[in-house]
Amino acid sequence: MIKNGQTQQFDKAAFKAAVEKHLTTTYAYTTESATPHAWYLAMARALAEISTGNLLATEQKLAKEKARSVNYLSLEFLIGRLTGNNLISLGLYENVASAMEELGQNLTDLLEEERDPALGNGGLGRLAACFMDSLAAQEYPAVGYGLHYEYGLFRQSFEQGRQVETPDGWRGVEGYPWEVVRPELTQTVSLYGYVESYLDEDGNNYRRWVPGMTVDGIAWDLPIVGYDNNSVYPLRLWECRSPAPFNLARFNDGDYVGAQYPALEAGNVTKVLYPNDNHDQGKALRLMQQYFHCACSIADILRRHHAAGNEIEDLAKLETIQLNDTHPTIAIPELMRVLIDEYKMGWEAAWAICSQTFAYTNHTLLPEALETWSEALIQQMLPRHMEIIFEINHRFLKEVEAAWPGNNDVKRKLSIIQEGPQRMVRMANLCVVSTYAVNGVAALHSELVKRDLFPEFNELYPGRLTNVTNGVTPRRWIKYCNPGLSELISEKVGSDWPVHLEKIAGLAEFADDEAFQQRFMAVKKQNKQRLADWVKTNMDIDLDTNAIFDIQIKRLHEYKRQHLNLLHILALYHRLLNDPTFDMHPRVFFFGAKAAPGYALAKDIIFAINKVAEKVNNDPRLGGKLKVVFVPDYRVSLAEILFPAADVSEQISTAGKEASGTGNMKFAMNGALTIGTMDGANVEMREEVGDDNIFIFGLLVDEVQKLKQEGYDPYRYYNADSMLRAAMDLLDSDEFTPGQPGLLSAIRQNLLEGGDPYLVLADFADYVKTHEKIDAAYRDQKTWAHKAILNTALMSKFSSDRSIRDYANNIWNLKPVKC
Ligand code: CR6
């Protein structure tokens, strides 16, 4: 088997033969007729043979050793392209480049042929991908469980400035070369039906679920290749198929068939990823996705457990299950159901296992993102699970009664069931009650989880609520996406920094070394040129790399305040045209963001930025000082070009709203300076780099809360600040939509009459002032280089390797196993 240079030799001739074999036998091309896409597919297949072999070997070894594993359950894994990354992990990048060269192909071009597997919305899904990478790099035994969506996050294009969504068939017609189907792992999943009591042969009374229909779960494995080691872990994605025709016997009674079976085909269950970030939609099909995902995953965990020769009583000793947000919460009642109904365990024994197996990560405080499901819907789709949830709640409320005797308010507040005209199941409450650890994703966020979201739970279960600050993988987010910087780092601190990121601290001693500053800035310049070239080719906009590249890339959301950034741009535009004393260093403002298709204001903000861009980029009066670029279809592969090219990173959410952020970390690692609020992980980044090397502005969490309590009035700011007024009023004019005033008014309207829920106006003045400081700082290139180098040097805390070690040591009790 070919593996990274340490253990096995790369056999170039054999590899070339494998590529040619796939070209002809798998994809039906001759070497003469093959397109670049076919070459990429054949090459990736040849590489996947290597990783699949190692995946099976890793599986066997871990089973044999009875190693304790983590099962990472997530509805999203935003893995991005795998080929380049896996080449680096396998240590084969140069070898394969040279092999492909001999086949007349350029590796860099072939890598561009891969479509992004966009199986996630944003930070949460990308975090899951970084965590899988870090688990494998450090050899902490793990399986990732997700869904095999036929369509990932929609593709975005702009028509006359407005977002248009089209389906993302990420696998293409040929299929994705890195995945392998595992038919022997197929699971059957039940839905609907009813629950009945029965007596077994010994006269014991049991409950059982008589399902109304079943579907099949097919396993697809993607290889998560450990960096410079022999471990390959599966990312196991479940695809839903209908065994046709489904259980006809149960369909005889036409009455309840009509009542209980919505018009849906099983094949629809994993058809498409729900495109909402930080927003709960409550659609029945989504609940079905969640249950399908959990039922397949729990069954597979139990299968592995038994296949390794282990007893069910030892489940919590050998397996832990991390719930990535509340999306897979239904796994908790599912495991209870299996233990009680199938293994015939008593409630206490089943609960002892469950409550020691699951842990839960909370990723948001936003009320609109906290999942609740209608009791009636769960009752209909998963009747046995609803019974189990009632029983969990019943027992839990007894605990609450014991802790706060006679206090019905606290019971109402903590209950898993929310009373009201339509009773709802609060998934986060179910998680806190049923897990052994609950973590937030940054220090500030975790404090707010304890203080504002779950204060009583924190009293009731001391120590259960904790923090694990997010991180990102330095393999993809430095080594792979920024080869120039990587070489510089290796030269100064040695080449093992991708798995020992603490070593990059060694760069700090060169922060004042002029020669090093120049080389660091030269790399930045090259990366800016690479981005400028992309923009020229794809958008036909000319950019000057001497300008400050100021970038905000993340989902479009009011709390992330892309409209604050826009107001600043409008203020600059106004000043450049009206204030002869005003000068600024040329700046390019980049945006990349998808808006949830149903989120009207977010789409209006995209439209406004595009309209402003159109005007600003072609206005000779601005003398090229101001450019605005909204890159279409922001995705992982574009992020890989944007992060390395940034001078300035925009992290400007309203304090208390962004749980962590992870883009903030990727920018700083690549030497960008942050302009940010005291929110999420920005707070800890400031601690690491020091106040002089980050530009902090805006209200603090407590100031935000106080201002809201006192009654926030956006007009107060609007009336008092002429620059803000000018910027806002431009939105009401036809300056950017000639002959059609009012097309951009919705944003102004939301900020003034809509009460400005995210305090954009309150933070505007400080934001503008802080940007002026950035302008001044950039003019002194030596000082800027010094700050930029320190940002890279002082980011080691934010490696996802550290996050995973925190989980392993403080939550999972997990030890690495060398393969
Ligand atoms: N939207 C948070 O908003 C955090 C990621 C990963 C988010 C973001 O601040 O960095 O999770 N939350 O922890 C949810 O998705 C619910 C996100 O990506």
UniProtKB/TrEMBL annotation:
The modification N6-(pyridoxal phosphate)lysine is found at K666. GO terms for biological process: glycogen catabolic process. It is an enzyme of class 2 (transferase). It comes from the Bacteria. GO terms for molecular function: glycogen phosphorylase activity; pyridoxal phosphate binding. Coiled coil: none annotated. Its cofactor is pyridoxal 5'-phosphate. Keywords: Carbohydrate metabolism, Glycosyltransferase, Pyridoxal phosphate, Transferase. Its EC number is 2.4.1.1. PROSITE patterns: PHOSPHORYLASE. One of its GO terms (cellular component) is cytoplasm. It catalyses: [(1->4)-alpha-D-glucosyl](n) + phosphate = [(1->4)-alpha-D-glucosyl](n-1) + alpha-D-glucose 1-phosphate. PANTHER family: GLYCOGEN PHOSPHORYLASE (PTHR11468), MALTODEXTRIN PHOSPHORYLASE (PTHR11468:SF25). Belongs to the glycogen phosphorylase family. Allosteric enzyme that catalyzes the rate-limiting step in glycogen catabolism, the phosphorolytic cleavage of glycogen to produce glucose-1-phosphate, and plays a central role in maintaining cellular and organismal glucose homeostasis. This is Alpha-1,4 glucan phosphorylase. It comes from Photobacterium ganghwense.
